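**Reference record**
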Amino acid sequence: MQPLRVALAQINSTVGDLEGNLEKIRHTLELGREQSVDLIAFPELAITGYPPEDLLLKPRFIEDSRKALDTLVTLSRGFSLIVGFVDQNQALYNAAALIHEGQLALIHHKWCLPNYGVFDENRYFTPGKQPTLFELKGRTIGVNICEDIWSQSGPTSTQAEAGADLIININASPYHLQKSRVREELLSKRALENGVQIVYVNMVGGQDELVFDGGSLVYDERGRLLARAAQFEEAFLVIDLPAPSGRSKTKTSGGTALDISKTSHPCFGEKLRKKRAEIPLPKRSKNFTPEEEIYRALVMGVSDYVKKNQFNKGVIGLSGGVDSALTAVIAADALGKDNVVGVFMPSRYSSEESRVDAEGLAQNLGIAFKTLSIEDPFQASLALLSETFQGRQIDVTEENLQSRIRGNLLMALSNKFGWLVLTTGNKSEFSVGYATLYGDMAGGFAVIKDLWKTTVYRLAMMRNKKRDQPIPLRILEKAPTAELRPNQKDEDSLPPYDMLDPILEAYVEEHKSAQDIVSMGYAASIVSKVISLVDRSEFKRRQAPVGIKITSRALGKDRRMPITNRYRGFYKSKTEHESATTEKKRRMKIA
């Protein structure tokens, strides 16, 4: 039996861009013709982009997406292809179409609809029930979609029992750190336990807070990795799959395979078969360190968000600190130095060191740099409020005035020039509310929103190891400060970040209680304070700009906590609860 030449089309679709996605698929089909493939697999919902969310509630969108599929059918002459689309048949289905020789041959409806974390598929789709099988060149092939293969009792086992020796699984699987390792372990296990080869094709690209990292995979029937496409870039991976060895194909009543291989077309010619046999299996792509992986995800997320939303440049408030420095470096790598503007906005509390460091960063990156002093508008604001504030002590109100003036200036630049404001807050700050509503939180895209402060430093140091070393060394060495009052340091208000971040990670990402976290070795008073700050700041996070998901539980769709919420079951005692309540009242002033 001759090998089956399969191509994994790891493409970057844009939600709602039906014409653009169709053109990308058409171009990819031409690559398939050039390389004489038998079968091309495209990602989940490749025609509509993923996730289309409430576009799926618009009848016209469903109609137009089906017209796009019909157009694609007419382009399929010469080989077979599998592509994700939205099917409507009384209900809506997340579907995969098998198209062969100008005909829509089969449709698979996704069985297992994820409804956790960032996923909300039960809102839109109805689960499928029938296993989908077809035959091509003597191979019995099962088709399923993303979550289908994660479930041990999903369609993969049913298809294998029905005689499938190859599973094509199409995906829009979003990235988070370590996700690629989890996928590899899962797919190896599924291939081995079912005795099937698995072709896993994943989407790539940024969509709002999500990044799809690609990394498409091919496994043999013994669970061994045969090929891997690159992460964070489009790819067209071609592999010649030999027939699996020692595979028993005793069919059960689980499904019926449609034989499409009897139709003659150019890809089945003897001359092309010889050409296929000459091509070796692709080598594995490079594995990245965790810091490299995160960095590439951030660069892709920024690049796609800015370009897909048709902004011309990104603008960043440069403070001379590590958060804005890392954000600027990511933006320059994502958009090009000519498309990034850094703005330094000093007040009476800004140090000369901060100015030198911010300007040095901009010079190292080659980005535009502007200085807009906020001293005059700050002075004017204080004068305007002086009568109203008479008799009141200076407090966080005056600090936040400075931040809001800066946010106002950045948004003015955005309005005037069409630049997207890239905010610079990190996950540690967002978690505890160490951020100013309508101030440093003002903007369109929060680049490092899902990075703990300690991770920010790791990425900055990793990026600085490259030849250009863009971030001035002093930025990485000095104590973090907002510079909103004399001699201010972050640790005046918060525990040190190397203590704060593990507490936050345990509470926010791992759902641990105060007692659990105290048992990790942290003081009860500190744990109680941190938890109170997290809970009290929910109203701020709800108003924060969208940001790139990096961890397994980001502060967006992953974590949907009520703003109005009096549950305090995570405290160990009434005393802790009362202490947290007092802290909560104090924090009411900090917005």
Summary: The chain has two domains: 4-277, 290-587. Residues 248-284, 584-590 have pLDDT under 50 and may be disordered. The chain has 19 helices and 20 strands.
